[in-house]
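Cross-check.
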Amino acid sequence: MSIVFSVIIVTLFMLIQALLQLKPATFSLLYHNALAKYSIKKSDNLALNYILGSELFIVTLWLAMYYIFFSIFYLFPNFPTAILYWIIAGILAATAISFFCFYFKKSPSTTLFLSRRHARSITARTASIKSPRDAFLLGFFINIPELIFTLPLYLLTAVLMQSTTVFPRAITVIALVIAAVLPTFIILFAFHGSANLASITRTRVKLKPFLRIIVPLCYIITCAITIIGVLTW
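Predicted model, tokenized:
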């Protein structure tokens, strides 16, 4: 696939990563609870460890996907890459529909796709964080529920890196990490300003209709570009 299509796909992946809501929502609760119990310095330390955990998850998952496909293409040089792209494109289309229908629950709040039990568990976990290790682990594992929406994009970019040799792998990983954790830094800076959990939640409620449209649209565009890239290969 051409370098232009690869850049567009990675950029769209970055945008989707930045717009997903589970990590920022959990971070808001974590930092709010930390401020109520600890000093600003310790709260910031917990926040940064949460962010570090998220970063490590993204790097680990992407590298795992990359080396899996690297091994496949190394062992099977004639592997039908075009078919793989078509399969991923179909998954992206299905993911767009799933996001539009299920990512946000039908309520005036910002309630996400998680079950009530899982949501209560995460809320309780954010309130019980006491050490940097706890915050790190929460930041790492909070990415798992959203894999149903992000895994197809990890697969696609990992495959792209096998066929687009001029596209730097390190820059791709760094860009995805920055995009994924940028919302948490924005929330952290907002807390250091005049914002609180209530004002941040109100902002997320206002953004909900926009996100419900723009994220599926990004998936559809990614799907279309993938198909066009295969057809013009």
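The mean pLDDT is 90. The chain is about 80% helix and 0% strand. Passed to J.P. for a second look.
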